[in-house]
Amino acid sequence: VYNCAETLTNLIYLLNQGEKFSHSEKENLFFNVTKLLHSQDSELKRLVFIFINHLQSIDNYFILTGPLLNEINGENIILKTTSLRTIGHIIDLSNIAVVERHLKTVN
């Protein structure tokens, strides 16, 4: 977990510094990083969501809708707020109705 968090932190740093990745590099990073959402470590999940916020122009964001909505329903307030921010960055017209319906039912 520590190595994954360190690598994600370095990737976020590179993106903040203006490092440009090719489309195929972005897709590879995206799919490999989303696998980390299976972790039970909340800090690692938070870093994944922050990384996704910084990653731009990926076509497969719909893959994250389910895990993000699950975190919004969760008990961890930090993951809940980070998930809400992330879903705001990735939502598109094809899944906006599902997300809206789900958000209306969240307590």
Describe the structure.
α1 (2-16) runs parallel beside α3, α3 runs parallel beside α5 and α4 packs antiparallel against α5. The mean pLDDT is 86. The protein is 68% helix and 0% strand. The chain has 107 residues and is mostly helical. The protein is built from 6 helices and no strands. It has helices at 2-16, 23-34, 42-54, 65-73, 77-90, 96-105.
Offer a concise description of the structure.
By secondary structure, this protein is mainly α. The protein has helices at residues 2-16, 23-34, 42-54, 65-73, 77-90, 96-105.
Short key terms for the protein model shown above:
107 residues; mainly alpha; 6 helices; 0% strand; globular
List strands and helices in order, with pairings.
Layout: H1 2-16, H2 23-34, H3 42-54, H4 65-73, H5 77-90, H6 96-105
How many β-strand stretches? 0
Secondary structural class: mainly alpha
Note poorly predicted spans. Answer: none
C-alpha geometry: globular
Q: What is the end-to-end distance?
A: 31 Å
Determine the number of helices (DSSP H or I, runs of at least 4 residues). Answer: 6
Query: Helix content range of the residues, please?
Result: 55-70%
Specify the biggest β-sheet. none
Q: Report strand %.
A: under 5%
